[in-house]
Design brief:
A hairpin with a 2-residue loop joins strand 1 and strand 2. The N terminus is likely disordered. The chain is mostly helical. The protein has a domain of 133 residues: Orthogonal Bundle (Lysozyme), CATH 1.10.530. It starts with 6 loop residues before the first helix and ends in an 18-residue tail after the last helix.
Length: 218
């Protein structure tokens, strides 16, 4: 009978110790959490207006598209967004393929043989874009030397603008625009013109792109 007298006090003491332990951890957490505050921190966020999320809103009008500024990556992503909204698997109603909207004839000209897999191969699409830039820079190398920094039809000519316009309408149509002072202004099936692309993609850094007559795809 004497042994049973000690069971209840021992259990009571153990429960008090365990309870105190949990209480102290909870108080410590609440105290730590209360120290977090955004006071004095400069926050950057934006809630778009209705017009900004409409189908007519053009992200390319923003100075720092995708926060990439005027870098080459900014140029590439801005052009891809303009062509296809950045979608690799898209085929437009006129048969142009992928993120950068290549025609089948252009891809064959650059040496692509298995075009059927082109939409599923993002690495191949990026390689095609870089190769086509190099090719157009080689074709238009004299125009780049001659016309960059001039103003034609109200648009300041830059190398990136020339390359973007060549992607749109082909280097021959860009040459005609420049050499006719803007009088010959070719447009694609959607109405986008050489002049429009010269202006839209002006001033990006494409200086590292080499002018290559027969660029390597990979």
């Amino acid at each position: 009978m004497e042994k049973k007298r000690y069971v209840i006090p021992i259990l009571f003491i153990a429960a008090m110790i365990i309870g105190a332990g949990f209480s102290s951890k909870s108080d410590e957490f609440e105290l730590t959490a209360s120290n977090f505050s955004t006071e004095g921190i400069e926050l950057f966020y934006h809630v778009p207006e209705e017009a900004e999320v409409s189908t007519n809103f053009n992200f390319l009008d923003q100075e720092n598209f995708l926060l990439l500024g005027k870098s080459y990556l900014g140029f590439k992503e801005a052009l891809g967004f303009k062509e296809s909204r950045g979608r690799y698997q898209i085929v437009n109603p006129y048969g142009y393929l992928g993120k950068y909207q290549f025609s089948r004839s252009t891809l064959r000209m650059m040496g692509f043989k298995n075009i059927d897999c082109f939409l599923e191969n993002t690495e191949q699409q990026e390689a095609a874009f870089n190769a086509y830039l190099s090719f157009n820079k080689w074709v238009l190398r004299k125009e780049i030397d001659r016309f960059v920094d001039q103003t034609i039809a109200g648009v300041k000519v830059t190398e990136s603008g020339i390359l973007a316009a060549a992607h749109l309408a082909g280097p021959g149509n860009v040459r005609k625009f420049l050499r006719t002072g803007g009088a010959s202004d070719a447009a694609d099936a959607n109405g986008a013109t050489v002049r429009y692309y010269l202006k839209m993609f002006s001033g990006y850094d494409t200086s590292h792109i080499e002018a290559v007559e027969k660029p390597r795809l990979f």
